[in-house]
Amino acid sequence: MNKKQLNQLLVINLLTMTTFNMAHPVTPKLINELQFPSYMFGVFFALMAVANYVMSPIWGSLSDQKGRKRFLMIGVIGYGLSQVGFGLSTTLFPILIFRLLGGTFSICYITSALAYLTDLTEPKERMKYLSYHTATLSLGTSIGGLLGGYLGETHYEYTFIVQGLFCFVLLGIFAICLKEIQPIMHKGDKLTVYLDHLKPKKTMFDLKSSIGIMILVMTFITITTTAYNSTINYYVESVLNMPSTVNGLVMAIGGMIALIMNVGVGPYLGKKCDEYKIIKSTTFIAGILLVLASVVSSPVLSLVFIIGFIASSALVVPIQQSIVSKIAKENYGEVMGVQGSAKALGMVIGSLGSGFIFSLGSKLPFFFAGLFALLAYLILKKLPR
Predict the structure, then answer these.
(1) pTM for the full model?
(2) What is the domain range of residue 95?
(3) Residue 359 covered by a domain
(4) Rounded Cα gap, residues 81 and 89, in angstroms
């Protein structure tokens, strides 16, 4: 295990996640200023998720064969350009195209980064570093949300332009700092592209196998987190009538809570408790708390329950990834890609579902999200050891 390379990857992921999360606080402002209907916040998220679903295993299988570094670089520069196009467009059709491109390139980076981390870690240390990896996402979400909300308070376009410039800076950092560790294909080797996810197989959701259960759990948990995340920003902007700086602050607080859980609580529990027990209990707690937050009338109680949801749900993803990485014996890039597609499917359902039911009740998306976490818990009870 190369700790120097791992630490470099974690710092790079922090910088990348900061950049990738800058636009979230100002996207509701874009929707409102361009006078799009409220459900478009779900549609925008869903389009990225569709691209994630299609491209995640493809990028993963390509990085298995051609190496991780080049796909990390392709992902970050492609995402930067697509975000500039998204932020500067004023009509719906090009915005939808740039959303698809954004999803295509963001998942290229995300899948390759997870596979890179898996390459660098031994199974016994993997949960710890996956927790750290998730912590960089949490901290990046906090910093990016604050920065993006501040930059776009008067003109949301500024956030997208700076986001694009930061991606070019990251490209240079990747080129200088990252080392290729995955064997490159030899001349004459045949390049294969993974497309099996486009032909759904019953075995992928076989509740008698551990991998099938964990893929389905990833889908349901992602529905939960996506429904919450895609709704909270629009709720703050449109229901509470708060500026983008407040949206950024909400993201920052949530990110800091998740950071504490992933850096402090997650690794501690990983040493003291069984992974299978942790994921079952945290998934159940997250679901119950979010359902309660959506039905109580007291704003203070709702806030307490939401904080509890953020804290408990932050532990689920790194544990799930650790379990999957141990089940998969080889082809980590491809496996992470399939997992990415399951996550993308959850993003589509979560974003579209929350977007369209928002008009029926501004708290309904949170209830919807909590129910899927409870469904994930029921499925986890079938998980064999």
Answers:
(1) 0.73
(2) 3-182+199-380
(3) yes
(4) 12
